[in-house]
């Protein structure tokens, strides 16, 4: 019998941690034509730049890329090697210039760096009074611009790290000088198109507590870290976890002495691009650059929800949403005070009244008196005052109406009045019963005569609605006839209308599951055929391209691939219609405690069936299709638990955007091959890796524990390696299945899984070879230990792991 072994291994990729590897940026040589030094005789102008020694940062003139920022230029520092404009420091943030060609950044006679426009100085570091031509400015690979003596590089007279804008870079200090009372802090941009100081600040607490705080308008503290415990901040558990991880790329330091209090963080691998920013929304975010995703990925933010930022929506506005998505909207009777700032992401200016209040109601006709409307289920605004006079809702309303400054009231047994702008009004999602009554001019609400006219219009509208209902009924019956005529003939695709799918799914009311690229809903045809309808999100193809791609996918037929029955493509609406799988997805059977465990023979047949389906995609289709997202959630089980690979067409449909979508999905990070993360080209071997990680879970019936705090005894892939060497694979299977296991199949499956997750693509088998091994047609040799498992299993020393091999 033949035996399978891998081709000669290439250089293995050693990953610090799976998540850490996602941060690595390919190294590039610095530009030989650029300099990192500014001198009095060599100023910067126009499109000239300073480039740090290893090319990590650049300094020069720039314009914010947000709309509405045209004509304003600034001098700043940004990341030089990434395609997304990411400014980390701005010199003249309050004084933009109009023309970089006629402006310059240079060393002045007194040794400071200055920005000159024509003959006037727009900005200066203003920190030294040195002799002429004695200083130079150097841009470092930390992102720090330092002014120092020519002859003594250690004599720094000024640095941008002491004059932060909105970004806190590794190696810099958030600090408070106890001698001078000066804080080194970060201040948000005014909006996404204007780097002028905004409303939000992050700084060490100047009152002496051992914490840093976030402030609104330099006065109101709305979030703090809690006092340093000696190893972490209580309100930053993410930092606490990172601080205890072995091999973590971050280090943290808190210092409190007689001179200063400061907190700093650093990275142990300078290939990692990391930053901490206070956004225009008042939320702080720590993020890293993921090369494969070509995007900044946020791993920590505070406060969790924008609605918890003090004054985020400004006055007379309401904040709605959750931690994942928040939005501001003006109250009825108000409109945006500064629409341009709202469009640029800064709603803090809030809203203003459309019509001013009449103030006093004395001598006014009732129709012209100010009125109130009610907003239900809200978190009440700040700065309410209690009125003793308001012993009932009516009295409370009168108390507000009789005071010119009163803008709103609330009554819940106690009368609360607001005499200033309403700030921090929020929708609630916890069933709060607090209501607030907003005061507006009478013209903003309809009076009784208007109501009568409205009733008359409703009557006329009712007649018109009846006519529309008759017409709608006609089209409904017509649509029923069209749907009844649909035929799901084998091998043919139906082009559905969106309205038809709404009807067949009862307006998408019964959800079957939620995936990375959209939700799946149950639908039923008139002939009782059940189908699964997937609404795709984030697809950008034109309609012609989408139809062509779907037609190609629709011709793919295999017993272990889900069948595509039809599709919908109308405008931006993209839907796929699949055959319905009554037994759901594999993860429900493996990981749900309320289900009976799958027998070993069933698991082995599922593993083999999935391998056959992937072999068809990789090797037998006209075009090779790489699935790119193999995991239990994408393996569906038919009536007799026959496995079918689902979503195999999405990689083809999503094209080049797929990698960006996938790498931003935290739910599938445990199945990603190293080449996904390091930015290398993706081949079919990426599916092989994901299949191997899934095969470990099929064997154990549990999730692979991918958390960095695991030990070699609990991280299942490492445990499989140990048991293979010890010849004790029987202990790997569920205890309920011990007497049901074919030990030869179990050992074969364990070896296949270990070969699949090798670091090097060339060391992994193809899916076709995997099918042959699982079917017992080819023997397999003992696999080596994948090197990245050595890092993930923190309890294993390198010497111990090498012994296992």
From TrEMBL:
Family matches, as Pfam families: B_lectin (PF01453), PAN_2 (PF08276), Pkinase (PF00069), S_locus_glycop (PF00954)
PANTHER family from the UniProt entry: OS07G0415500 PROTEIN, RECEPTOR-LIKE SERINE_THREONINE-PROTEIN KINASE
SUPFAM superfamilies, per the entry: alpha-D-mannose-specific plant lectins, Protein kinase-like (PK-like)
GO CC list: plasma membrane
Location of the Protein kinase domain: 506-778
EC number: 2.7.11.1
Transmembrane regions listed in the UniProt entry: 454-477
Protein name: Receptor-like serine/threonine-protein kinase
Keyword match Metal-binding: no
Gene Ontology MF annotations: ATP binding; carbohydrate binding; protein serine kinase activity; protein serine/threonine kinase activity
Signal peptide extent: 1-29
PROSITE patterns: BULB_LECTIN (PS50927), PAN (PS50948), PROTEIN_KINASE_ATP (PS00107), PROTEIN_KINASE_DOM (PS50011), PROTEIN_KINASE_ST (PS00108)
Topological type in the membrane: Single-pass type I membrane protein
Positions bound to ATP: 535
Class of enzymatic activity (EC top level): transferase
Location(s), subcellular: Cell membrane
Domain of life: Eukaryota
Domain Apple: 359-441
Known catalytic reactions: L-seryl-[protein] + ATP = O-phospho-L-seryl-[protein] + ADP + H(+); L-threonyl-[protein] + ATP = O-phospho-L-threonyl-[protein] + ADP + H(+)
Example GO biological process: recognition of pollen
Family: Belongs to the protein kinase superfamily. Ser/Thr protein kinase family.
Residues of the Bulb-type lectin domain: 35-160
Recorded name of the encoding gene: LOC123097284
Keywords tagged on the record: ATP-binding, Cell membrane, Disulfide bond, EGF-like domain, Glycoprotein, Kinase, Lectin, Membrane, Nucleotide-binding, Phosphoprotein, Receptor, Serine/threonine-protein kinase, Signal, Transferase, Transmembrane, Transmembrane helix
